[in-house]
């Protein structure tokens, strides 16, 4: 009986691992950058498709409503719709897909809430994109367990960032030093913390 119980437990663990492995693989496929698609439909449309495919929402310039349905994306001439805000709450976006952000010129607001694949390399990539250095003024990073002090400090390159909300980031070890470095680099930055 004990042997049967251990066999069943082992099979259940194997099935859980296989399921997680499958979803991780599928999420990586969703994040793959198609450079030909970016050329064909423009950076904003391609980025919106990527974000919605991964479970995020986008808001276009001139719209009040958030788009979350891939099939409901507005159509029109190339370059007509510009992404103004991204809400990646509980989405599967990951570093692999961040090249989609390269051509975006009007993004003012990004929210990373409960994004299990967001890590330091994502924030480093985000802050290295020249267009976002100019346009992004509000950023939230909440409950992204892989983000450390290093990733947050990398945000200092977002020179027009005015508001940063950080919450539930257990991998941040020295919040005082991290916020001091950001404040030194970006004196106009308002940082709201809930890291306890």
Topology readout:
Layout: H1 2-30, H2 35-41, H3 43-53, E1 57-60, E2 83-87, E3 109-113, H4 120-128, H5 130-135, E4 138-142, H6 149-153, E5 163-167, H7 175-185, E6 190-194
Parallel strand pairs: 2-3, 3-4, 4-5, 5-6
Antiparallel strand pairs: 1-2
Helix pairs in contact: 2-3
Organism: Seriola lalandi dorsalis
Protein name: Distal membrane arm assembly component 2 like
Folded structure, characterized:
This is Distal membrane arm assembly component 2 like. By secondary structure, the protein is of the alpha/beta class. It has a single domain, classed as Ribonuclease Inhibitor (Leucine-rich repeat, LRR (right-handed beta-alpha superhelix)). A six-stranded mixed beta sheet has the order 1-2-3-4-5-6, covered by helices on one side. Strand 4, helix 6 and strand 5 form a beta-alpha-beta unit. Helix 2 crosses helix 3. The longest helix is centred in the N-terminal third of the chain and has 29 residues. It starts with a helix and ends with a strand. About 30% of the residues are buried. The mean pLDDT is about 90.
**Taking all residues together, what is the mean pLDDT?**
89
Q: Whole-Å distance between the termini?
A: 47 Å
The CATH superfamily label reads Ribonuclease Inhibitor
State the strand order across the main sheet.
Answer: 1-2-3-4-5-6
Strand-and-helix sequence, N→C? HHHEEEHHEHEHE
Return the domain count.
1
CATH topology: Leucine-rich repeat, LRR (right-handed beta-alpha superhelix)
Strand composition percent: 5-15%
Please state the CA-atom Rg, rounded to the nearest Å. Answer: 19 Å
Major sheet: 6 strands, mixed
Organism: Seriola lalandi dorsalis
Protein name: Distal membrane arm assembly component 2 like
